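Table S2 (text version). Query chain:
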Amino acid sequence: MSTPSEGAPVSAAIESPAFRTRNVATAFAGLVLVAGCFARFGLEPEAFIGSFFAVVLLVLSVIDLEHRIIPDRIVLPATAVVLASQLVFFPGQGLEWVLASIGAALFFLLPILVYPQGMGMGDVKLALLMGAALGKVVSVALIIGMVSAVVPGLYLLARHGRSARKMGVPFAPFLALGSVIALFAGEWLLEAYLGVLRS
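Corresponding structure-token output:
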């Protein structure tokens, strides 16, 4: 799946003609996400943090789709900005943000240690960002992301058979999808799921 790359490959990813042709659609999608954040959270810190997080997810998804890259120079500073913002505005939940960030990253890191070909370290670093932004509802984002990624995986398997195992699927767009859903409805989905378990 996704692997990080630095220097010239990352610059090529951002400056390529194919990337530039998507600028209009990407900008429009970004505006929709930002508007959605302010509609959902109002003029609160959550709206500003959520908007930044959503736009970063969008940019990373476009790059990963085009070049199978999750650049360190984007995802790591974004993680630092989001985590610092959470700690400043919501210090009472500081432990939640830190543990969710570490836990989400470990969720992907441990399988990589067993099977390195399964996914790239870029996905691990993206999970770190997701945990910092979403806190406990990062579990919702991870589940939705992994389940939605099964669909193209099954399609490739049906079309190409065993050779599909060697075909990489960009994972960032699916994690981004799960993250956006969790951002707007994660609390409700988590409570609904826990309610089913309690019944």
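Notes on Table S2: Confidence is low (pLDDT under 50) at residues 1-5. The radius of gyration is 17 Å.
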